[in-house]
Write a structure and sequence with these properties.
This protein is mostly helical. It has four helices and no strands. The two termini are 48 Å apart.
């Protein structure tokens, strides 16, 4: 008695053989890594055609998020250095400004991340709508 997954696999060189899901999966895995740059370029081109303004906003938001992360690292370093100096007898007021800076940068970074999340959702919907309209034509 045959099990569900024991169907005979047709030869891939046989043109009359039906196309199966297993072949689809196997073909997707066989794509070489060198196709990645061209696929990335094509997808960015598609998104740019679908929503150029939103794509530019997303790029600016990504840069802003990176700058916020870098600023957080700088403030964290300053905060830790000043905390060590407090152990050496310095006043605790020395950590106030690095702490305030860290909190402000963290807040700005959180807002940027929230806006970025919404923009990605909108950008995905616009790109999907554009791709569907291209297929429908």
């Amino acid at each position: 008695m045959r099990e569900v997954g024991d169907a005979e696999q047709p030869k891939s060189d046989d043109a009359s053989a039906p196309f199966t899901y297993d072949e689809f999966r196997r073909r997707r895995r066989d794509r070489p890594l060198r196709e990645l740059p061209s696929l990335t370029r094509a997808s960015v081109r598609l998104v740019h055609r679908a929503a150029p303004r939103e794509l530019r906003i997303e790029v600016v938001l990504s840069i802003a998020a990176g700058l916020c992360a870098a600023a957080q690292l700088v403030f964290t370093r300053q905060l830790l250095q000043r905390l060590l100096q407090i152990d050496d007898g310095r006043e605790a007021r020395a950590i106030i400004w690095p702490l305030v800076g860290f909190v402000v940068v963290y807040s700005v970074g959180s807002i940027v991340a929230l806006v970025q999340s919404e923009m990605r959702r909108v950008l995905g919907e616009l790109a999907a709508s554009y791709a569907q309209s291209m297929v429908a034509q």
